[in-house]
Amino acid sequence: MGGGARYPYPKEVWTPSGGWWTRPSNWKSNTAIAFAGILAVTYSVWTLSAAREWRYIQPSKPIPSMLWAKQYKEKKPELEKELH
C-alpha cells in the first residue's frame, strides 16, 4: 500500500512544491503560523462585518446574526416592540 521503496531521483530538477518526498522539518510551526494568520484575518473581517451590518427591514423572528450585530446590541426599545 505504500507504493514501494523510494527510488533515486534527479537532484537537479526544481519544483515549486519541493520535489520528491519533501517533508520540511518545520512543517508543524509553518502550519501553526498559517492557521493563526487565517484566524486573525477571519476575526477582523467578522468584527468589521458585525459593526457595519444593518437591517432596514426587521426580521419577523430572531436570527443568529442578531447575537453579534451592532444594531441589536444597542437594544433599542422600538426594535423590541417590533420583534415581539
TrEMBL record:
Organism superkingdom: Eukaryota
Keyword Transmembrane included in the entry's annotation: yes
Membrane-crossing segments per the record: 32-51
Keywords recorded for this protein, A-Z: Membrane, Transmembrane, Transmembrane helix
Protein name as catalogued: Uncharacterized protein
The species this protein was found in: Rickenella mellea
